[in-house]
Amino acid sequence: MTLTQLSYMITIAETGSLNKAAEQLYVSQPSLTNAIKELEKELGVTLLNRSGRGVTLTNDGVDFLYQAKEIYSQYENLMHKYGKGGSLKKKFAVSTQHYSFATKAFVDMAQNYDLSEYEFAIKETKTREVIDDVSTLKSEIGVLYLSEFNRKAMTRILNNANLVFHHLVDCKPYVYLWKEHPLAKEKSVNLKQLAPYPCLTFDQGDNSTLYYAEEIFTTGESSQTIRANDRATMLNLMVGVNGYTLCSGIICEELNGSDYVAVPFVDESQGEDITMEIGYITHKNMTLSRIGEEYIASMKQYLENA
Fold first, then answer.
1. Is residue 246 within 8 Å of 173, Cβ to Cβ?
2. 3-state class of 219 per DSSP?
3. Which of 105, 112, 158, 268 has most Cβ atoms within 10 angstroms of its Cβ?
4. Cα–Cα dist 138/130, whole Å
5. 139 touches 95 (CB < 8 A)
6. Alpha carbons 7 and 24: distance in angstroms, whole number
7. What is the pTM of this model?
8. What percentage of the chain exceeds 70 in pLDDT?
9. Which of 247, 249, 244 is CA-nearest to residue 194?
């Protein structure tokens, strides 16, 4: 086993493609493929699932990648200290569903660091990508939610990906609206009142399951639905078409602005049992970095004061 092979595996996991990894590493794909096959032969395990759509890590591959990143990180640290012209930056990344509080906590945490010495990244993305990023160690932490509707399926998905869910906060559902929406001043809103207006949802991809939806599931689906890919577009649609979305009610005005309101949602068919459990996910075999611990503390502090 060589450091080159470790570097190859890390790059393949990050790109999800032998072609892209070969381009990034400036090696031919046959050379890259042979190096990984030799590594698998030496270890006696299969590290990659290969298909026409690209490559994914096997369970053994995920475990190996965790160890490989640790070893390669130690090598990079040595090169940074003893090599010529070393410029290693410490890295920290978060993948999250579209929660403004997660971004706000990231900003608050990052302000404590000299960003010329660190490489920070936060990505608001689809639920599947949040899971994949943490599973392949692209991100140290992922932020998402569970409910009675998706809990069983999501728990199975997380277990299969060697991920652990950690509780942050329980929330009742709210309807998020533009402040000039006809329902914005109501004390609470139900499905019947929402029926004339389009429901806004974050796009999870054509082949996604309902369990990946970021909006808490209700038994009554809207006859009008508009999908959006980002938070800014969602906010614009609330103004432009009087759309609404179902959310946790934890809204950061500093990022979203003060032109929107969260009104308690009431679903008479389910009584008071609708709850969103927001939390974060980590890899089973990974110990949180100091920066990761500070980010989680920043989220908890924001949620306590929200």
1. yes
2. coil
3. 105
4. 10
5. yes
6. 11
7. 0.70
8. 93
9. 244
Question: Under 8 Å CB-to-CB from 77, ≥6 apart: which residues?
Answer: 88
**Is 247 in contact with 215 (CB distance < 8 Å)?**
yes
pLDDT in tens, 154-196: 999 999 999 999 999 999 989 999 999 999 999 999 888 999 9
Tally Cβ neighbours within 10 Å of residue 155: 13
6-11 CB contacts, 8 Å cutoff, 24+ apart: 6/68, 6/71, 6/72, 7/72, 8/32, 8/35, 8/36, 8/39, 9/36, 9/39, 9/47, 9/61, 9/64, 9/65, 9/68, 10/65, 10/68, 10/69, 10/72
Which CA distances in Å does 46 have to 14, 49, 57, 141, 255?
18, 8, 9, 26, 45
Is the distance from CB of 98 to CB of 234 less than 8 angstroms?
Answer: yes
CA 177 to chain centre: 24
Share of the chain above pLDDT 90, in %: 48
Q: Which residue has the tokens 């699932």?
A: 49
Contact call for residues 261 and 169 (beta carbons, < 8 A): no
